[in-house]
Write a structure and sequence with these properties.
344 residues; Aspartate Aminotransferase, domain 2; 2 domains; 38% helix; 13 helices; Aspartate Aminotransferase, domain 1; 7-stranded mixed beta sheet; 11 strands; alpha/beta
Amino acid sequence: MKRGFASDNNSGIHPEILKALFTENEGHAIGYGGDETTESAINCFKKEFGQEIDVYFVFNGTGANVLSLSTLSHSFHSVICSETAHIQTDECGAPEKLTGSKLLPVASTNGKITPEGIIRYLHGFEFEHHSQAKLISISQVTELGTVYSVEEIKAITTLAHEYGLFVHMDGARLANAAVALDLPFRAFTVDAGIDVLSFGGTKNGMMMGEAVVFFSRVLGTELSKNTKYIRKQNMQLYSKMRFVSAQFVAYFNNDLWKKMATHSNQMAKLLEQAVRQIPAIQITQAVDANGVFAIVPPEIIPLLQEKYFFYMWDEHRSEVRWMTSFDTQEEDITDFAALIKSLV
């Protein structure tokens, strides 16, 4: 299949990740995370985020988000998020079904929510007729390809903590955000006041597996003591966990994550530059990471998708989403741009 621009989920697995899996496949090891490789992977996370963390490996991004929210909320709570958030639009209601909590969407034009949008939901506390706001969830990178600055994150976490709320970060593309910001992971997560993080690797060269990372405000609470049981009930406890852990060890080794995310971000910038030269194409969002959003003449979209598959984002305004990956090549960009030019 030709490399398209549908999703970084469509990409392959980095050779170093595959090598780690083959190496891990030798011999036996204790299941359910009691193995040395899982201990090594947790130490990798501690090196990035500090010693005061708890790490739980899961199968996928939805599982990571649900475990994060389930740990820190009850069924009478609500979660404030962007109206474009993955938990709101692309998880088939799993967060609401499995947590029982209500999602409260905040409108945005660029995928990022602000204290001004959040604060209208911060009322009705201690009033039994209202679901009780307990969590704010933000995505980094957002679903519109934009990246929160440290200052924007701190403004949200400061407001949340003033009202006794936790803040969750959906970091499915956290590596791309770190490269875009040119900052270490902890600078815009734990150091910026984030309480729980869904840490993604699948979209950046891993085969499968994500991690949930709890930070200091959560550690030791009655809520966090239940995480391991919730993970089991949510069917996210992998028996052969060492195969997820081995990927993360390789992911962090020699900053492999950074090399892959840097490349995918650069490919998105190259795509942006190429299509900006075509008057019929209108870029709609800042290209901060590895996503390009554009309004394209509707009559050429099916013709483009025949050669390079991608998804519609908003059919009403003929807006599409083009995602680049760690294995996107420059020739993919130049050939795609040439096809667009020939069609318009």
